[in-house]
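Q: Give me a backbone?
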Amino acid sequence: MTEEIVKNITSDIKQLDCAKKNLTTAITTLNHLHMLVDGVEKLKVLAEKRMYGEISNPLQAITEVNQHFTQYNEIAQIKELSNSVAEIQNTLCTQITEDFKNTFSLTPGSGNKMTLPKLRDACLVISVLDGKVRRELLKWFISELNKYF
């Protein structure tokens, strides 16, 4: 009889442990989803204003959180958020490339020049983005220098 009571108690404990694990996973996923939704909106605004200094850390976090949701891309809302992250990254790639070309172009009157702190911040954003952007920017910069040396 004691053995049966112990089995019932351990069975209940196992069920509670399983419920706790599922609840913890659900809460964590919900927090990540909240971070993703808020982060996408914040990044859109910051990218539009070209506030590179404030973009690099949230961009890194949102990129990592977005990777957690790749297995849920069949859900329309998750896919939309993932596409928004990709769109923001592409926009930043284009903007930063334009900004660098305007700043370092050796032709006179080539648009707005970025300040040194803003260049530093843009480099931080580039380090978070795809390495392809960095390589293309370096190729352009070297070819620009080769024109004059």
Q: What stands out?
A: The chain has one domain: 2-146. The two ends are 92 Å apart (CA to CA). The helical segments are 2-48, 56-68, 76-104, 116-128, 131-146.
